[in-house]
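Example (one chain per record):
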Amino acid sequence: MVIVGEIDLYTAPGLQAEFTRLLQESPATHVVIDMSGVEFCDSTGMNVLLSALKRLRERGGVLELAAPRPAVRKILQVTGLDSVFTVHETVPEKLLTVKRQA
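Predicted structure:
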């Protein structure tokens, strides 16, 4: 999954809907999110990512983040979420499944 733009109070509901659709329509248990195009992510956006992680874990799956920009990486570090999510420095191309504009 590729996310581009900002994940905030205004775009988070659309991202949440996309995760819901993905999880309902797909048997996917391993989702990697390309964060290289995300310029900003606030607490609302982090909550959407955590919710998706929880839902995937409930079905025995995993959610990983790839290539976060420095600002997003700092948020992950400050909140301690870098230890909750598996965070890749680069995007593992073979694992990407869906493209999404935030």
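Caption: The chain has a mean pLDDT of 88.
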